Amino acid sequence: DAKTTQPPSMDCAEGRAANLPCNHSTISGNEYVYWYRQIHSQGPQYIIHGLKNNETNEMASLIITEDRKSSTLILPHATLRDTAVYYCIVRVANSGGGADGLTFGKGTHLIIQP
Amino acid sequence: KAGVTQTPRYLIKTRGQQVTLSCSPISGHRSVSWYQQTPGQGLQFLFEYFSETQRNKGNFPGRFSGRQFSNSRSEMNVSTLELGDSALYLCASSFRTSSYEQYFGPGTRLTVT
Questions:
Q1: pLDDT, tens only, A10-47
Q2: B24 touches chain A (CB under 8 A)
Q3: Apex CA A90: angle with CA A12 and CA A54, to 5°?
Q4: Using a CB-CB distance cutoff of 8 angstroms, which residues of chain A are in contact with residue B103?
Q5: Is the pLDDT assigned to residue B89 strictly greater than 60?
Q6: Do residues B54 and B47 touch, judged by C-beta distance below 8 A?
Q7: Sign of torsion, CA B15 B49 A97 A24?
């Protein structure tokens, strides 16, 4: 699986857009980019995933560069409840052989400031 | 739609005992994965079940086992508990096997004394 690099921490003002970057320069053609977050003392939460097109759902937008070597997760109007550790993961989707599980790196600790 | 539920939420056991944790996936989801999370090791994959069959297994000793029922509910069992088994045990469900779009429960916090 491709390795990902994320900044260890970021601050964002409440109400502003939070832009979380992720580098995955060794990503291969059939690997998807997934984003999860984990709020303190809670289970991880799936946010969004994509292959090469930009994706948007009710939680966030995912922008993947044309060369797919990096991506940005955008929380359009951050609230205090978005304070969490955000994880960017690269995986081959539906490999058919049984999931080998998610593994999280250190992620980005996003702190939303009031 | 109700989320993934796990019971119990908190558990204290003594070394040498065994424990059974339960997970009810999101309705319609047939895959259940189990994870162990600790501050030192992070998130570690235990196993995945789909249609009552174990599809994949992580690198854990045989003391860790699981099963899935016909209604997709799953249980995991840890026998002969050790102090190092103290952790947050997470269950995640997904619609398909081998999917990394997984929806996690709140976890069971196990403390072994």
A1: 999 999 999 999 999 999 888 999 999 999 889 999 99
A2: no
A3: 60
A4: 46
A5: yes
A6: yes
A7: negative
